[in-house]
Amino acid sequence: GTQEYPYLTCELGGGMMTSYHRRIHIDPRDAYALELVKIGSGSNLPGFYMYHGGTNPEAEVAGTWLQEFQAATMTNSNDMPVKTYDFQAPLGEFGQVREPYYLLKRTHLFLQDWGAELAPMTTTFPAKHPANQQDLDTLRYAVRSDGKSGFVFVNNYQRGAEMPEKKGVQFAVTLADGGKVMVPAMPEDVPSGATVVWPFNMVLPGGVVLSWATAQPVCRVTDGAETVMVFVAMKGIPARLAFAPGADVTVEGKATAGVIEAGADTQVDVAAGGQVTHVLVMDEEHAKHVWRA
Length: 293
Hints:
Elements: E1 8-13, H1 29-40, E2 45-49, E3 54-55, E4 84-85, H2 99-118, E5 122-124, E6 140-145, E7 150-155, E8 166-174, E9 180-190, E10 195-203, E11 209-213, E12 216-223, E13 226-233, E14 240-243, E15 248-251, E16 254-256, E17 259-261, E18 266-272, E19 275-283, H3 284-287
Parallel strand pairs: 1-2, 13-19
Antiparallel strand pairs: 3-4, 5-6, 6-7, 7-10, 8-9, 10-11, 11-14, 12-13, 14-17, 15-16, 15-18, 18-19
């Protein structure tokens, strides 16, 4: 059956060509929100059309071209340009690096470092789905979990629509052993246009558990007994982290306990089991320029 095969997506819309009368404007969040929705829905292999624009080659027969050609009334003669196939893609025809690239890179770094944990996680969908495309009030979310830990995916962006802010968002996640974890422990408002991923029961080096966070994991680098873990604080959502008991937690050098209010450019150090994890929380603008070396 279909459940025997992994779920993948082959043509997530990374942009769109100008085609005669159509002058489509691509919002940087179009591809970013779509990709995270698909991953949250269970996809383990996101593919794009297009991720990198290009140039149509010359045809072998003189006077003919290889562009998409639709000289039909029903498609409004939706012909593409003869040579350029830039597609407003995250990476342009001539290597231009555009805003969607930086947003997608954030997701791809996350998949590189947490993909092995995320891939076998099953997806749980809400009992109430949006009634239709015009239903902008129903919260759109999904949970991927292995029964012990996982990620909550929330999307409050839709192309061409102004999504209202969602007030008091909080999830009661039931675990395989019957226990529950509240993500987050106190309700948060999700701004219009936001797409977020919140982890819960994430195991850090040394065995310490990040119970939940309202900041999004980006990447991690381990060097011996030390790990640097980068999170991004999404605009309009306070970045809070809560660790399970059993670790020494310091914020900017000061010992702390309970829920940590991590403003942008905050470092939280967590020590347990002979390992130290430096959790660096940064704002969205700085997170765009994170490179994992």
